[in-house]
Amino acid sequence: MDLIIVPPLTDFTTEVVPPAGAEVLDLNERIVERLADPSRLKAAAERLDGGPLTALLDRAAAAVLERKAFDDAHLRAVGTALRLAADPAVRLSIDDLELAEGSTQSSRDVLGAAGRCELFGPEVELAMAAARGRRAHVVVDDGQQLPAAFALVSALGAGQVTLCGRLAAEYGAALRRVPELAGVELLAWSPERVIRPLWYDAVPMGRACTWHRPDAAPAEGAPLCDAPDTQPGKRVRWVTGACPPPASGPWAGRLDAVGAAAFPGDVLARCRGLTITVTRIDFLAAVTGLNGVTVNLRRLLAGIPPGVPVTCELVLGAPGMDAGVVGESVELLAEGAGGVRLAGLRPYRMAIRSGWAGQSVRFPPDAANDLARWIEFDAPDTMRAYEVAAMIRTWVGRLRGLPAGRLAACSVAGQEPASAWHLCTEVDRAGARPCGQSAPAWDPCAEVVSGGAGPDGGGPGTFAVSLRSGRSFRLHPYEVAPVSRLAADDPHALDGLPERARTELTTGLARAGVLRGHG
After folding, report:
1. Which of 100, 133, 318, 414 gets the highest tally of CB atoms within 10 A of its CB?
2. Rounded distance between C-alpha atoms, residue 24 and residue 302, angstroms
3. Residue 515, preceding bond cis, omega within 30 degrees?
4. What is the pLDDT of residues 348-398, one digit of tens each?
5. Mean pLDDT of the 123-139 span
6. How far is CA 348 from CA 186, 304, 437, in A?
7. Do β-strands 286-288 and 280-282 pair in parallel, antiparallel, or remain unpaired?
8. 244 Cβ neighbours under 8 A, 6+ residues apart
9. Tens digits of per-residue pLDDT, 185-197?
10. What's the half-sphere exposure (Cβ side, CA atoms, 13 Å) at 197?
11. Terminus-to-terminus CA distance in the chain, angstroms?
């Protein structure tokens, strides 16, 4: 094993640790760097690829990426770059890939996407140059990597490829039945993944302090956080799915509640960040996992070192979980119940190889889905897909402080409770003190950009643009200077404006989503 290839698209805040003597070609890292290159985004903005709003988002993302702060805003900018990368076969987001036609559960659909996809072209060429007749071990941990993995098999030759990784190990039998993969070797081995030191050592997202790196001075006036294991190069193992934490050393993970609750104390003591997936929460005493089993998280929370971030990702639409139950769970997590924050919301999928402890009826997968990983089901008192989608849209619109995605960097980063971002929905009469704050506060995921026309049909101008909401607000010429100072964290930036002008301005900025505390 001398060549390990990591295909797009997987968590770019992690990296593979190769065995001794092996070389890693991380195509996932390469494509993220290429698509999120500020110069590429600026060029796209000049060409007006996608229209005026897209050009504004390109410029805002480029400005954030040029700062190289590796914080929440940086993640949002990367996500924007991936989302705006047009392709006839696939649609990207910060933590997912969807096929333009079909599903990654069907090898026919994946093969079709692999043949039409243009985004992966430069990375496939890199792999061909690196392999040069050598056997390539292609790591497939996630379903969203399948189109690129199939493209690599086609380019390198099935006889020269070994598929490995979590997904290849779990669904090896199904992959063997795909005719186009005949000749591919399958290996039930997954390389170790660690959080990239660049992200683990970076400024904690959402905190007013910095984790000092010896090779860089802290920001002026920013207090230092007491955070464990922040030495540059410290390897923090990233644990997901059914993989157990390492026998020694620090780790962080995104894990189901049932499995995480069973970890012994010595394992919990080495945790450096944990996101727990749940389908229901009741004051932490009763938390239901993805298999319908209810566990108590109090021992887990007591065993994790103080200051280590613990979050819950709420999965909506599980059997027997109606809208009332789910809504109560969201509210508890949004308020940071027991010190546990909300890590995000996503629809429930019943894994094909797992069951549910409660009542449910499982339906066999569609015959066309030869790579099926989840199945349809029915159960009383269960939210329908349209209800799940509507509830997620509603809450995501209110909870402005949710992490950027299901990434390792988000699990180890310090975040403010989501409620701190959504409790205010109006601007007071003076326009300068949004709901309990002494002055408007700029969202770090927003930028002031200029040089192009806006989506309002007007000519070139200057705009406040939010990478969090995807919206913009055109600034009058007299507003540019004070809003720029506001973006530079000057709490008195708007004090010189007349009351009416200040009210209109803060209302517009709030609607665009560029002020903290406003949706």
Report:
1. 318
2. 38
3. no
4. 999 998 889 988 999 999 999 999 999 999 999 999 999 999 999 999 888
5. 95
6. 29, 27, 37
7. antiparallel
8. none
9. 999 999 999 999 9
10. 12
11. 51
